[in-house]
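User: Can you write out an input/output pair for a complex, sequences first and structure second?

Assistant: Here is one pair. Inputs:
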Amino acid sequence: MKIVVTVKLVPDTNAVKRIDPATKRLVRTGVETVINPFDEYAIEAALALKEKLGGDTTVTIFTMAAESGKEVVRKALAMGADDAVMLSDAGLEGSDVWASAYAMAQALKKIGFDLIICGALAEDGNTGGLPNALSEYLGVPALTNARHIEISDAKVKAQRETDSGYQVVTGALPMLMTVTMAVGEPRYASLKGIMGAKRKTTAVMALSELGLEKAVGTGGAKTEVVEIAARPARGKARVEEAADGPAGAKIIFDFLKERKLL
Amino acid sequence: MIRDTVRAFVTDQILPRIGDWFEQGFLPKELARNLGGLGLLGMHLSGYGCPGASAVAYGLACMELEAGDSGVRSFASVQGSLAMFAIHRWGSEEQKQQWLAPMAAGEKIGCFGLTEADFGSNPAGMRTSARRDGGDWILNGTKMWITNGGIADVAVIWAMTDEGIRGFCVPAQTKGFTANDIERKLSLRASITSELVLHDCRLPADAAFPEVHGLKGPLACLNEARYGIIWGSMGAARTCYETALDYAKTRVQFDRPIAAFQLTQQKLVDMLLELGKGTLLALHIGRMKDGGRAAPDHVSFGKLNNVREALQIAREARTILGANGVTLEYPVIRHMNNLESVLTYEGTSEIHTLILGQAITGKPAFT
């Protein structure tokens, strides 16, 4: 079975992020690039499946990113993925979710897959829209927010997280899946994995190899960022006075209940 | 990437717990498997399940582990650079086959018995002896200050024989072998330190390391571990410096952060200079070691300088933290106390001074 994990390279989670007012895009230069933390869970899910299924199961990392991101992709290989493919082309610059998904889908068709696993969200854009758009272009079902995953005889059974609990969902391969953080903590890249990753291949694909029928990049984007604004400053905290412990507890209880946290 | 992985491991798995471990005088045994799973035990050795990383990569790992705690780095040093290195360098093929892979995985733990209560800097005077009895060896004596002693599955023991000092692989379940943990330490508390007692320990002939005779056996191992300390001490120093810098930026006195005061800036800059110089020195010696050009003198140079400066940085950081600096809420006093041990073990600063003194004058001043 061939599992492909889509990975986005994003600016370091802890770095202060800046948006260029001219292009209205996130400034990616001068900031360390890392694997989108949500995608690390997708990698973990794929590697755990590979260990469980054994045999000829392989895990391929796929990313749409500048070639300079090769070193970052290597971390996924060090964690245990078998190989990686990067879709790198200056023509992709300015792609929105729609254009990115279209280009990625064409590349994924070329790579081939039985199961695609995506992180639920990317740290930088926070749209969470790409996996569904991708499944649409690929014509495969999307099983979203999965946590516990079982696969046998090309059938998938997964627990799908909801606000109140989980659903048990089944489906047939090929399919696309997004996973939540409950799928398991991403493993550390071991020293052997890090050293072994140097010998694994990262293929680079260009747009010209894909035979695209639709525009991508800025020209193919269907959405436009019209305006950007800083997050409004947080208002003053609410201060409550309570006569005694039980009264204070009641205020906290009501506060949590009002927000449906209890 | 090795640095990032070890740093992430230390941040997630060590830092949240190390204050408690230090307070309780405890190091969880499962840490061995975690470190083994990452490939950090015996990482610079090749074959027998060891990954064969470079000296610089090994140094970076030591630095990140000791940025967590010197006790954690000591565990990895003793396992990889003393016990495993001794078996890898001097052991028979059977000993290598038996011990190295499970030790690399952290399934088996090793310790290294050279020091005795009365023979620390002068190991040549050791009283632990091994005599032949038919085809067997009989070991008698007591080793002291042995890291990992109480949790070890195998001890590498150096003992005086008729043929000079020889090394032995002593499984912990050998009759007559006991380990007594040393209590009431105020340094390296998240590390097991023990006394090893060998009372008529009978070992088969093949328990002895086949080739090596004399002090060069254990000294080759010590040189490996000392090398790791050159890096590790800078990890501890870095944590102290970063803690002091953060604290100074937020601690307000006389209506401004203490980082804005010239005296504090002087301290921080002095710390930064020594931290930067020491780290570059570690990198330089690491590259020499990878190129096969690092001599024991170079390692003494690095160990003496970096541990001394790390201790100074820790003490200076403590003053910036004021009274808060003496509590385990901050890592500084833990590192400071740990570094007192690091200054002494693996060759005291005095011995390294004399090694360098001999190197530049050609005159040994040990006796």
